[in-house]
Every structure is written in structure tokens, then in C-alpha cells.
Amino acid sequence: MKCKQRRPILLAAVILGLLLTVSCSTATTRVVLLPDKDGTTGALAVFKGKKATVLDSPMATAEVGAWGGVDTGMTSPAQVRSEFGPAMAAQPPEPISFVLYFEEGTTVVMPESRGTLRALFTEVAARQAVEVQVTGHTDTVGQGEDNDRLSTQRAEAIKQMLIKKGLRASFIRAVGRGERQLLIPTADNVAELKNRRVEVIVR
User: Fold this and answer.
1) Beta-sheet strand order (sheet of 70-74)
2) CA-to-CA distance for 69 and 78, rounded, in angstroms?
3) DSSP secondary-structure letter at 102?
4) CATH code 3.30.1330.60 for 96-202
5) DSSP H helix total and E strand total for the chain
6) Average pLDDT over residues 158-181
7) Cβ-Cβ contacts under 8 Å for 76 (sequence gap 6 or more)
8) With 90 as the cut, is the pLDDT of residue 70 above it?
9) pLDDT computed for residue 190 by the predictor
10) 93-117 residue pLDDT tens
11) What is the Cα–Cα distance from 44 to 124, expressed in whole angstroms?
12) Residue 167 to residue 13: CA distance in whole angstroms
């Protein structure tokens, strides 16, 4: 399973998959609000002093001039490509997360997660620069100290797989959380597949 992470709240406006491109010169700053790949668009507040101008339509623009004013307008996809194409092409890929599930009490990836594991390897290989966060988890079966150790071993197992695929060890951070962050809340000593997992974030 993999999913793209959402962007954070910015200037009290919820940004859902927005791409903000800014062109700066000594005269003006130009901002263009682009829709996400799925067509959704959030909103962005552009401030000049204490005055806020809100952009909430796809392809809406704001130009902040040296004279102190803010001019709004609209642009087109063709104009955006012409004006911002090189900057957009240079942006790093969005972070992607993968979840791998494990057989009970082991560091063996479940057969159902092997496709996700292959997708993880493909994504890492496709990125020119990569940083990987690997976090191991367990269910509530067993003692807390044992689960801390097992969760770390699961994370380390995935880390070693990535190293064998050519990723430098210094690019990977592997940690274990034991049973502290259950995906499915359960009582103690309950075997739960979705809690026996490693979460991998590729940036």
C-alpha cells in the first residue's frame, strides 16, 4: 500500500495538493495557484504588509509590486509552462509512503506485501536523490522490551534490503516503535496483522 502525503496548513489556508510557483525580481513577485493532479484546488493568502489577498481558483495569479499594491488575475496552463517550466521540472518528487506487513513474531514480510516491497524498490531507484525513513512496529503479543527489539529488527531488515539494492546506508534512518503506535488499537496479547508493520517514507 502506498499513498502520497498531504501538504501542511499554510497561512491559515488548507493547501490540498497545491503547487506554488514564485517568480521574483527587483520589481514584482508573481504567484500562481495551480490545481493538484486530481483537479482539486485549495486556497492561498498572499500578504503585502497586513493586507491579505486570497487566491482560491485554479490558475489565479497575484503580483506583488514594489509600489506596494497587489494585482490579481488569471493565467493559462500554457503560460505557466512557458514561464515556470524549468523551475517546475527541477522540483523534487513528492514524498511517498509504503506499508509492509510481517508474519507474527518474525522479520519476514508477508506474501501480500511483496508487491509493495517491489514498488518501494522501484521508487527508490527512480529518484536521483533520496532520503528514506523506516519505522518498525509490532502488535501487542509478547513483552514490551521484546517488541521494541522486534520492531527495530523489522526496520533494520528493510534497511538492509534497500542497501543491497544500492541505496547508501547514510540515506536511510531505521527505528523501532514497538507496540506504542498501534494502527489498530487492541488489548494486550492480541495478534493483529496490521500492527505488525514497517512504514517507509521515501523523500
Assistant:
1) 19-24, 28-34, 60-65, 70-74
2) 26
3) B
4) yes
5) 3, 13
6) 97
7) 59
8) no
9) 97
10) 789 999 999 999 999 999 999 999 9
11) 32
12) 37
Overall average pLDDT of the 133-147 stretch? 98
- How many whole angstroms separate alpha carbon 8 and alpha carbon 188? 34
Here the cell at position 167 is 541505496
C-alpha–C-alpha distance, residues 59 and 31, integer Å? 10
77 Cβ neighbours under 8 A, 6+ residues apart: 59
For residues 192 and 185, what is the distance between their CA atoms, to the nearest angstrom?
A: 9
Q: What does the DSSP 8-state code read for residue 156? A: H
Q: What is the pLDDT of residues 13-50, one digit of tens each?
A: 333 334 444 444 456 788 898 888 778 888 888 887 77
Domain residues of the chain, as ranges?
2-89, 96-202
Q: Per the structure block, which three cell numbers stand in for 142?
A: 509478547
Number of residues assigned to the chain? 203
Instruction: Retrieve residue 163's grid coordinates.
Output: 542497501
Give the separation between CA 51 and CA 55, rounded to whole angstroms. 13
